[in-house]
């Protein structure tokens, strides 16, 4: 059975304020879902109801088909969570902190020892296993927090803006860890207000604003909504690429619909066609020896859809 997460009419009100408004969302399978929205959209409120940290005003949350509100222990047994930014006692080592988490979860001592070694490797903190946490940077502490969410080897992992407050290096490290988690046949549900983060690590995006779900779709389908079925690809070159070169060697390639220049060394192509067409374009560009450095899905499509949808909700 594939891991799954579902919200049915999930609603939370605080007095007259509605933080989450009848959220209906169902995700299933081994992938990463970006729960995207501006600050205050209701993302953390939703995650807290998925983990039974707060009760819904109405509606229900399910993990692997089990109601969190009706069968809390059974539902959360398959789930690892990192909500907001928990603190670790500075006098503990990562190994000691994870032993404490494992004991609280009711894991067997031998299982705790085995999984502690595995998860510290997974978050690239094995060399620091017996150092005091008080000496760690914020990014290192966050990696230990992620390790604690993985300790029970969960099928479903809920991460609440895991890179918030980190410096660029720390953010990159956390994103790299999340990308690695996708290889473990887990369902990862990650809230974020950072577009680039969702594009870098997620397979699907669910956009929330003012407590309401605006859409849930794959990143590729979001792009198609904007481009009418075409695909946008960003190209980066080692040096400047002249207009004559673009006209003579890039524009004529089969499948290229349009070209937008970002700057002297970067272009965005709109391509009509699937992976085979894109692969052919990449091969021809490499053969042309233009100094191509990267060929990746465009970041602009999701950004444009994001801004359009958010502006609709704000109007």
Averaged pLDDT: 90
Tell me how many strands there are. 14
The number of helical elements comes to: 11
**Poorly predicted regions:** none
Going by CATH, the homologous superfamily of the largest domain would be P-loop containing nucleotide triphosphate hydrolases
Order of helices and strands: EEEHEEHEHHHEHEHEEHEHEEHEH
Describe what you observe in this structure.
With 315 residues, the chain is an alpha/beta fold. The chain folds into two domains: 4-221, 3-Layer(aba) Sandwich (Rossmann fold); 230-303, Alpha-Beta Plaits. Helices cover 37% and strands 29% of the residues. It has helices at 43-50, 72-76, 94-104, 109-122, 138-150, 168-181, 195-201, 219-227, 243-250, 275-287, 300-314, and strands at 4-14, 17-28, 32-36, 58-63, 66-67, 79-82, 156-160, 187-192, 204-209, 212-218, 231-237, 256-263, 266-271, 292-297. A six-stranded mixed sheet has the order 6-7-8-3-9-10, sandwiched between helices. A hairpin with a 2-residue loop joins β4 and β5 (66-67). α3 (94-104) packs across α4. The radius of gyration is 22 Å and the shape is globular. 36% of the residues are buried. The mean pLDDT is 90.
């Amino acid at each position: 059975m594939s891991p799954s997460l579902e919200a049915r009419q999930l609603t939370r009100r605080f007095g007259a304020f509605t933080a989450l408004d009848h959220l209906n969302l169902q995700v299933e399978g081994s992938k990463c879902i970006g729960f995207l929205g501006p600050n205050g959209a209701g993302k953390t409120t939703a995650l807290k109801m998925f983990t039974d940290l707060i009760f819904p005003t109405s509606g229900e949350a399910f993990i692997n088909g089990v109601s969190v509100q009706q069968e809390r222990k059974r539902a959360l047994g398959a789930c690892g969570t990192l909500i907001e930014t928990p603190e670790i006692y500075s006098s503990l080592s990562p190994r000691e902190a994870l032993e404490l988490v494992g004991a609280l979860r009711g894991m067997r001592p031998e299982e705790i020892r085995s999984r502690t070694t595995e998860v510290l490797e997974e978050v690239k903190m094995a060399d620091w296993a017996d150092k005091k946490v008080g000496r760690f940077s914020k990014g290192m502490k966050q990696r230990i927090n992620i390790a604690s969410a993985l300790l029970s080897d969960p099928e479903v992992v809920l991460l609440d803006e895991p890179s918030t407050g980190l410096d660029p290096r720390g953010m990159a490290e956390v994103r790299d860890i999340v990308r690695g988690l996708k290889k473990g046949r887990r369902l990862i549900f990650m809230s974020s207000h950072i577009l680039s983060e969702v594009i870098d690590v997620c397979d699907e995006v669910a956009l929330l604003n003012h407590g309401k779900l605006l859409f849930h779709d794959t990143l590729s389908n979001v792009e198609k909504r904007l481009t009418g079925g075409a695909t946008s690809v960003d190209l980066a070159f080692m040096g400047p690429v002249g207009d004559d070169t673009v006209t003579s060697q890039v524009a004529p390639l089969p499948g290229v619909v349009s070209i937008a220049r970002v700057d002297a060394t970067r272009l965005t192509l709109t391509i009509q066609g699937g992976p085979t067409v894109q692969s052919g374009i990449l091969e021809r560009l490499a053969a042309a020896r233009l100094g191509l450095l990267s060929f990746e899905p465009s970041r602009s499509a999701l950004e444009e859809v994001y801004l359009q949808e958010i502006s609709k909700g704000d109007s």
